[in-house]
Amino acid sequence: MFEGKRVLVVVPARGGSQGVKLKNLREIGGVPLVAQAGRIAAALDFADRRIVSTDHAEIARIATEAGLAAPFMRPEALSGPVISDLQVLTHALEEMERIDSVRYDIVVMLQPTSPSRTAQHVRDTVALLARDGFDAVWSVSESDSKAHPLKQLSIGDGSRLDYYDPKGATIVARQQLQPVYHRNGIAYAFTRACLIEQKTIKGARTGALVIEGPVVNIDTELDLDWANFLQQRGKKPS
Predict the structure, then answer these.
(1) How far is 201 from 205, CA to CA, in rounded Å?
(2) How far apart are the C-alpha atoms of 95 and 184, rounded to whole Å?
(3) What is the spatial distance between Cα 94 and Cα 110, in angstroms, rounded to a whole number?
(4) Domain 7-143+181-232's class?
(5) What is the strand order of the sheet 7-12 is part of?
(6) Are 68 and 11 in contact (CB under 8 A)?
(7) CA distance 161 to 216
(8) For residue 235, what pLDDT is reported?
(9) Higher pLDDT among residues 231 and 193, named by residue
(10) What's the predicted TM-score (pTM) here?
(11) What is the rounded (10 degree) CA torsion for 174, 179, 184, 188?
């Protein structure tokens, strides 16, 4: 429990992947991504339950070896590429409340594709949720100024180039840009009410935990190379 609240940790890890085949089984430093998430979950002493939500038998096997439980297999209806985090988490929460005959107050999501996480990142995420009364907390990283919305361009008919946002025409130096942030997948925490009653992963009050330093969020083979490179340099993404 965390401050008297029962905590369910969910590692979502389906077998299908359009970018990198069986991405959740790919290895960083010789350890499958789903196992890395499982090891972090196992280090969270406040977690009442740590589970994997998967539709793939080998992912389930490796996850259980890493300390996660696999008390159910994800149904086919929740295994496609356009299934939302909300659908997966709601299903996992309702299944575990039925299986365990308890009510979970906080749900933590650890995506295997973000191996940069530490147990402290997750603790800080849950602490922020509980301390400040948020409905949800997402971990984020500051976006590189080159990716700022006001520096983006669009191409229209006849290869015509324009600013994606007309206000971009007023930007002459990066110092004019207000920092923007992106989800890095390291940790999410939600209240039960956020998922079940508000039916969203971004509740009415959602907080941000800003993660400093390099963060890898794996979508491509190049991302895998980058994560392995950082580990070989003795600098695990933080």
Answers:
(1) 11
(2) 27
(3) 18
(4) alpha beta
(5) 49-53, 7-12, 106-109, 181-191, 136-142, 206-210
(6) yes
(7) 31
(8) 54
(9) 193
(10) 0.92
(11) 180
Q: Are 58 and 26 in contact (CB under 8 A)?
A: no
Q: Is the pLDDT of residue 83 over 50?
A: yes
pLDDT, tens digit, for every residue of 25-38? 999 989 999 999 99
Q: What is the mean pLDDT of residues 42-49?
A: 97
Candidates 109, 136, 114; CA nearest to 12 is 109
Sketch the domain layout of the chain as residue ranges.
7-143+181-232, 144-178
Q: Tell me the mean pLDDT in the region 1-9.
A: 97
The 10s digit of each residue's pLDDT in 114-150 is 998 999 999 999 999 999 999 999 999 999 999 999 9
Place of tokens 């002459």: 172
Distance CA 202, CA 226 (A): 29
pLDDT for the residue numbered 137: 98
